[in-house]
Design goal:
By secondary structure, the protein is of the alpha+beta class. It is built from 15 helices and 10 strands. The chain has helices at 9-26, 42-47, 49-57, 76-86, 92-95, 102-112, 115-126, 243-279, 291-321, 328-352, 354-358, 364-374, 381-393, 408-418, 420-429; strands at residues 131-135, 151-155, 158-169, 174-182, 193-199, 205-211, 221-232, 236-237, 281-282, 285-286. It has a 4-stranded mixed sheet, with helices on one face. A hairpin with a 2-residue loop joins β9 and β10 (285-286). The structure holds flavin-adenine dinucleotide (FAD). One of its GO terms (cellular component) is cytoplasm. InterPro entries: Acyl-CoA_dehydrogenase, Acyl-CoA_Oxase/DH_mid-dom, Acyl-CoA_Oxase/DH_mid-dom_sf, AcylCo_DH-like_C, AcylCo_DH/oxidase_C, AcylCoA_DH/ox_N, AcylCoA_DH/ox_N_sf, AcylCoA_DH/oxidase_NM_dom_sf.
Length: 430
């Protein structure tokens, strides 16, 4: 019987260490004016580097990587449990060397990069000496990459890139961008685009503006313009026309990590909700005594628990099959459920805190916006619903019967036929 929900004690010890370390040392970083991707800021050297050194000492640095790249080669279940803890803090992924989009970018350079590309970009990225951005979505539409128009044309021994990209996260801190551009406009639809490594100081790379998510200060979502950006031919990443195949490599495990980080955020919201419920009183006692409040808390716990099990089960399937194609529908389902569950729990927590809940002194507004982000970034919910439904429907054949074979009438006919002899004997004897 190999169905087991236990965490092995040695790994649980590591999780316990992470839990305390994130709470005591990392979460406080979220409350000061320093951004987790501002790696060249002198304050980063003072505050974040010592914590990263501690994580390395514990053997927990960049655990998503295989041992060949200095990681532990942990499977997705272990990584999922770790990300549940990391999800509580904006800084934690950077402190543990597993911050998106650098993780995905490192993954594809490791997989498709040349030796020279790896030497120049991969190692400093893995060491978090530099950060990177992924420049794929365009202002005219991000959900359907077949509509992208940014062009890359070969001119002698250089590629020349022209076009605009939208929401290239962290472009303002990045050393280089991975840009997806149309290199072969006449090729088959899924082989028209290639990926390029574009150093940010290349002439013609411009950040038109840094868009913010929600309200507040200047953000870090780069609206990019590429004007006659010339990069040497060897800055092509992977095969010419291979952008789609490469981007699939990028998204597999990352979605599970995001989902478990969302579980971490959901747990935090639920925790604060319960704390408030037992602390805030009306004239007849604490909020926790009200049935309506109890129902909200119970529902939030159930939603979170259902989602957590679904994510961990998907992680387990990935570890078992070691082939993302076999788990496509499960990953799509996780991606669809994630914004809903997060939205539902964060909204309940916000509501239960009343005016304080909508204030900028609580995390809930950010969480609610975050739940919308989860349903948009990395493809909108509808696209993943479509993937899931198509995967499910592949197992069904159409029938020409006017009344389906599974109608109760037909099933009854079948049953009568199956038991005809016994029923006849029974009737005779009666
Ligand atoms: C916080 C954040 C960070 C991001 N980071 C990056 C990044 O680093 N790099 C990058 O390249 N991109 C990034 N993105 C962009 C992201 O990939 C796109 O926003 C996403 O693919 C959706 O594209 P869009 O915003 O243009 O929406 P659209 O494509 O315009 O879609 C808008 C809406 O239309 C509907 N819709 C679209 N297509 C379908 C369909 N097939 N079926 C049914 N309904 C549909 C959905 O309701 C969808 O929400 C980021 C986005 C966010 C919010």
């Amino acid at each position: 019987m190999a169905w087991d929900f236990e965490t092995e004690p040695e790994f649980q010890e590591k999780l316990d260490w992470m839990d305390a370390f994130v709470r005591d040392e990392v979460e406080p970083l979220d409350r000061i004016r320093l951004h987790p991707y501002d790696v060249k800021n002198p304050l980063y050297a003072k505050l974040v580097r010592p914590l990263q050194a501690e994580v390395k000492k514990q053997g927990l640095w960049a655990c998503h990587l295989g041992p060949d790249l200095g990681g532990q080669g942990y499977g997705q279940v272990k990584l999922g449990l770790m990300n549940e803890i990391l999800g509580r803090s904006h800084f934690a992924p950077s402190v543990f060397g597993c911050q998106a989009p650098d993780t995905g970018n490192a993954e594809i350079i490791a997989h498709y990069g040349t030796a020279a590309q790896k030497a120049k970009y991969l190692q400093p990225l893995l060491n978090n000496e530099i950060v990177s951005a992924f420049s794929m979505s365009e202002p005219t539409g991000g959900a359907d990459p077949l509509t992208f128009t940014t062009r890359a044309e070969l001119d002698g021994d250089h590629w020349v890139i022209n076009g605009e990209k939208w929401f290239s996260t962290n472009a303002k801190w990045a050393e280089f961008l991975i840009v997806m551009a149309v290199s072969d406009p006449d090729g088959p639809p899924y082989q028209r685009m290639s990926m390029f490594i574009v150093p940010c100081d290349t002439p013609g790379v411009e950040i038109v503006r840094n868009v913010g998510v929600g309200y507040g200060d200047e953000g870090s979502e780069g609206y990019m313009r590429y004007t006659n950006v010339r990069v040497p031919a060897d800055h092509l990443l992977g095969e010419r026309g291979g952008a789609f195949a490469i981007s699939q490599t990028r998204l597999g495990g990352g979605r599970i990590h995001h989902a478990m980080r969302t579980v971490g955020q959901g747990k935090r919201a639920l925790d604060l909700m319960c704390q408030r419920a037992v602390s805030r009183t009306t004239r007849d006692g604490p909020l926790s005594g009200k049935q309506a409040v109890q129902m909200m808390i119970a529902d939030a716990w159930i939603e979170l628990q259902q989602f957590r099990l679904m994510v961990l089960h998907t992680a387990w399937l990935i570890d078992k099959h070691r082939d993302y194609r076999k788990v496509r529908k499960d990953i799509a389902a996780v991606k669809v459920a994630m914004p809903r569950v997060y939205h539902s729990i964060a909204s309940k927590a916000l509501h239960l805190h009343g005016a304080l809940g909508v204030s900028n002194e609580m995390p809930f507004v950010g969480q609610v916006i975050g739940s919308f982000v989860m349903g948009i970034a990395d493809g909108p919910t509808e696209v993943h619903q479509e993937t899931l439904a198509k995967q499910l429907l592949r197992h069904y054949q159409p029938s020409n019967d006017l009344f389906p074979a599974y109608s109760l009438l037909n099933r009854r006919e079948e049953a009568l036929e199956k038991f005809a002899e016994i029923l006849a004997e029974h009737e005779e004897a009666a």
